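Appendix C: a fully annotated inverse folding record. The material below is reproduced so that readers can follow the format used throughout the book. The structure is listed first as tokens, followed by the designed sequence.
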């Protein structure tokens, strides 16, 4: 459903040009749990942002359900970002003084969904991440692991086909990291999850596929033998 064909990304500033991606070709199935590993600056975030339609590629093609995005207009990218993609970041990006429920509902306020349905859907996704009893807490009263679960719930509110997570456990201790990974693994049962991580142990333990980048190129693409269950 998602395919990158020889994607390159150059960042230019003045006379400087950084080759952030140098011809990346990848094909993803509908329900994989993919970890992207590699040293700082190798292009992981750039790759995730291109897949998520947050950043445009310089050359190559991104195929969505077999359709080229070369002719995509702004409104096509908007629709893709809003309906196909969910994003989770290391820094949660929650509104600290609003309730958990409000934070998750907010993602739907511009979508034309009725207030009643917004609430019902927010409660459903919060239950899915194990926070059904914390609806009226505020993020500033929560632990990092709980905040990341709120952020995952928010990313799932539109039932996206693809969940992208940029170092979702980067700010968490190992115990809460495991809780978040368990949830992402569950989420990946019926959608594609692509995660950037600096933690090879978590990648080995939870993901069904590990892609290693080095200097803008894919250098390794394997299925860890230690993944809990074969998919
Ligand atoms: P990673 O996520 O693996 O740390 P990035 O995708 O953030 O790597 O960055 C890849 C390369 O592109 C790095 O050399 C980085 O400095 C450069 N880069 C990233 N974003 C920009 C930008 N907006 N402008 C210029 N260079 C950038």
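Designed amino acids, in order:
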């Amino acid at each position: 459903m998602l395919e990158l064909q020889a994607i390159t990304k150059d960042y230019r500033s003045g006379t400087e040009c950084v080759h952030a991606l140098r011809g990346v070709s990848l094909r993803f199935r509908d329900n994989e749990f993919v970890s992207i590993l590699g040293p700082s600056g190798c292009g992981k975030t750039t790759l995730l942002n291109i897949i998520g339609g947050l950043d445009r590629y310089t050359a190559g093609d991104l195929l969505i359900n077999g359709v080229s995005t070369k002719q995509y207009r702004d409104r096509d990218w908007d629709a893709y970002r809003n309906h196909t993609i969910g994003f989770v970041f290391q820094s949660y990006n929650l509104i600290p003084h609003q309730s958990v429920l409000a934070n998750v509902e907010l993602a739907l306020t511009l979508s034309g969904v009725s207030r009643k349905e917004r609430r019902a859907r927010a409660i459903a996704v919060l239950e899915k991440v194990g926070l059904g009893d914390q609806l009226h807490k505020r993020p500033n009263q929560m632990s990092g692991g709980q905040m990341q679960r709120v952020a995952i719930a928010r990313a799932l509110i539109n039932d996206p086909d693809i969940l992208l997570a940029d170092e979702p456990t980067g700010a968490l201790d190992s115990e809460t990291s495991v809780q978040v990974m368990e949830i992402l693994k569950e989420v990946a049962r019926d959608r594609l999850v692509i995660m950037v991580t600096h933690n090879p142990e978590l990648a080995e333990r939870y993901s069904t596929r590990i892609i290693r980048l080095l200097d803008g190129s894919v250098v390794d693409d394997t299925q860890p033998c230690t993944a809990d269950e074969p998919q």
